Amino acid sequence: MINSGNIAFYLVSTFLLTFGLMAVTTRKIFRAAIWLLFSLIGVASLYFLMDLQFLAAVQIIVYIGGIVVLIIFSIFLTQHSGEDLPKALVSRKIISMVMCVLGLGLIGKVLVENKFEASKVVFDSELKTIGNKMLSIGPDGYALQFELVSILLLAAMIGCIVIALKKSPEQS
Amino acid sequence: MNNVPLIHILFVSTALFFIGVYGFFTRRNLITMLMSVELILNSVNINFVAFNKYLHPENHDGLFFSFFIIAIAAAEAAVAIAIIINLYRSHRSIDVEDANELKL
Q1: Which of A32, A94, A140, B37 is the most buried (most CB within 10 A)?
Q2: Chain A residue numbers touching B85 (CB-CB < 8 A)
Q3: What pLDDT, on a 0 to 100 scale, did the predictor assign at position B104?
Q4: A30-69 CB burial, b ≥16 within 10 A, e <16
């Protein structure tokens, strides 16, 4: 069936796959980061199309506002971004391409053979439900995981500071 | 969007996954390898929410998995970039072929 929602889905998928492919094949590292940014925007718009506004917002804030900016910073710190990356070996390229196509074919075959029966129940993607579940300690709640993730983020933050800390000359 | 079959969304996420795998295999620069890992994690997220929304809409497990994967991906990227910067300080390069020792 052709309607505007379907067309938008196929457009967004082509967009995100094209930019993903460009991000992994371009030889300019700064462009790779920008194509990755566009691909992540494509994923966020896919979430918007699936009516998952909160997940799309999280995707934009964390990935686009956080991770891509961090990647661009580290490119500035470590690379001469005007230079091309060294060419990958042709044999390595061919082997990885064959492996990826085979994997894609295998998973595609499994997907086609499975008959997925879409459920008729309407998915409740309201922010209120999500917020209640996120902090509830009942059987459907995710309060424990929420707390664990906050501890993980704290540990990661301390770890980053310790790893990237510049050692004073007398120590090294 | 609601009458797009589930299998098309799954094909998109599979394609994105293998694009990430291709990048991970061919790239030899740590930052670009990290970018490929981000693509792979995104394809997994799409899969989780698609299965959740289409097959088990009465639960929210897939959605919450995606939230936690995004949080963990952020932590992972931050730690990876700290390691990359430290590696660059000691080796003057972030090519995996140059980083062949565990200790200075």
Answers
A1: A32
A2: 74, 77-78, 164
A3: 60
A4: eebbbbbbbbbbbbbbbbbbbebebbbebbbebbbebbbe
- Mean pLDDT in chain A? 88
Q: How far apart are CA B3 and CA A130, in angstroms?
A: 24
**pLDDT tens track for B2-54:** 778 889 999 999 999 999 999 999 988 899 999 999 999 999 999 999 999 99
- Which chain B residue lies closest to A144 (C-alpha atoms)? B68
Instruction: Give tens-digit pLDDT for B86-103.
Output: 888 888 888 888 877 776
* Burial classification of residue A127, based on how many CB atoms lie within 10 Å of its CB (0-12 exposed, 13-18 middle, 19 or more buried): exposed
Question: How many cross-chain Cβ pairs, A to B, lie less than 8 Å apart?
Answer: 225
In a 3-state reduction of DSSP, which class is residue B95?
strand
CA-based nearest distance B2→chain A, Å: 8
